[in-house]
Every structure is written in structure tokens, then in C-alpha cells.
Write the C-alpha cells for this entry.
Amino acid sequence: MKRLSVAEIERELAGTPGWELVEDSIVRTVKFRDFKEAMAYVNRVAEVAEELNHHPDIEIRWNVVVLTQTTHAAGGLTEHDFHLARRLNAL
């Protein structure tokens, strides 16, 4: 997996709404009505992540889910991160 350049990251980010660049990761925050709804979303995220064998860091704060995505093995963002992010946007 090749780490993306700054220009490639900017291009990919422009096509991946809801995500923002934070250091060497992309981050999305999603708010739900309650904890149960947030957990149902996290379970759907887990299914997609397992299917793609690429897993985000997930932080749950009652009704708020924060997804952080990077490719640790590449030391930064790769195409896989943006592919996963776009799949998660479809949930």
C-alpha cells in the first residue's frame, strides 16, 4: 500500500464528504438520537470493515461516534482509507 501524497489526499478528500483531515488520518463524527442507535451504526461499520479487512479506530460517546481512519502499516493515508470512508458514508 502506497502512502498518498498531499495532492492525492486533497483530491480524495474532496470526493469523500463528511470526513476531515487530522494529521495523518481522516476523521468523521456522526451524531445519533441515542446510544442504541449509535451502537447499531457501529455494528454496521464493523461489518463493512471486516468485509474490506480495513478497520477504523472507533470512539463512542453515548450518541456520538467518531471514526478515525489511517493505514498504520503505510504510516499515513492510502487509497484503502478513502475506499472504506466512502463505503461507510453509504451506511
